[in-house]
Amino acid sequence: MKTHKKLWDRAFHDTKKYMDYYFSHKAVKSGVYSDYEEDELCAMAYFTPYQAQYRGKNCKVHYIVGVATKSKYRRQRRMTKLLSQGIDVCSQEGSPLVFLSPENPKVYDSLGFVGTYWRETTSVQGKGKSWYRVSPFCELTEGEKEKAACFSGKKLKEEKFELYLEHSKKYYEEVEREMKALEGGVLVLYETGDIVAVANYIQENGKWEITELICPRDAGKKVVETLCDYLKTEELTIDDSYFIAELKGEGISKKRQEKPYIMYKTTSLEDSPPLHCYINDIT
């Protein structure tokens, strides 16, 4: 595992705090595929399982992450071999698909991966205002955590996505740990006892980012202003704008990513057509 962590550090330059989190919580749950030249680790890929809704059915899918090859061993089809091995195992286990967030989509085109989700990022500048009460997810009771998860799950179901991750209490508890490793957390916004939004956030290079925001569309403006007020910032990036697509006005700018945020591939011989998909996981 030390050699894998060293290659991860060399490839992705994550903080020690985040790598400690990943290798103690996510890596141990993942299928790890490795390629060696004698005793030297040449390439690796992690297949991390998630519960998901895929075309109306609950199932296990795998997120491919930590895809890295040492520079001197690139262009030798080592990674193609590892990914093929991992996909074959997922197929044997009954997992219908694998997905990833590509650095270079062209690398995965030839392997049959299809772009299925593009992010639109919203940048916000301006003072916030406290419209709603904000509670960190980690401070909620078990029942309140369950209600927050149900809120998000209901919103996602209403959108009739063909593919999305199950937002259960267990899922959010893991997301909370992950966000904390990135100097952030999960926030739940309330109006007179009713949940109006759930937001995952991190801090990177001294700036706040909302990595996922689920809320009613007509509450987007007040939700964003409340988040700015809570985080005490006049500059906020919301990585995905799906639920605030209608948010406009002074200090609001939007940009659609040129490359897909999510690519996927079925584990069977079936084609992989683009899906109505919503996935905002980091690792």
How is this structure best described in words?
It is a single chain. By secondary structure, this protein is α+β, with helices and mostly antiparallel strands. Helix content is 30%, strand content 35%. It is built from 7 helices and 15 strands. It has helices spanning 2-12, 16-26, 78-92, 105-109, 142-158, 169-181, 220-231, and strands spanning 31-37, 40-54, 57-69, 97-100, 114-117, 120-125, 133-136, 163-165, 185-191, 194-204, 207-214, 235-238, 252-256, 262-266, 277-278. The strands form 2 sheets. Strands 1, 2, 3, 4, 5, 8, 14 and 15 form an 8-stranded mixed sheet that branches. It has a 7-stranded mixed sheet with strand order 7-9-10-11-12-6-13. β2 and β3 (57-69) form a beta hairpin. It is globular, with a radius of gyration of 19 Å.
Topology diagram in text:
Elements: H1 2-12, H2 16-26, E1 31-37, E2 40-54, E3 57-69, H3 78-92, E4 97-100, H4 105-109, E5 114-117, E6 120-125, E7 133-136, H5 142-158, E8 163-165, H6 169-181, E9 185-191, E10 194-204, E11 207-214, H7 220-231, E12 235-238, E13 252-256, E14 262-266, E15 277-278
Parallel strand pairs: 3-4, 8-15, 11-12
Antiparallel strand pairs: 1-2, 2-3, 2-8, 4-14, 5-14, 6-12, 6-13, 7-9, 9-10, 10-11
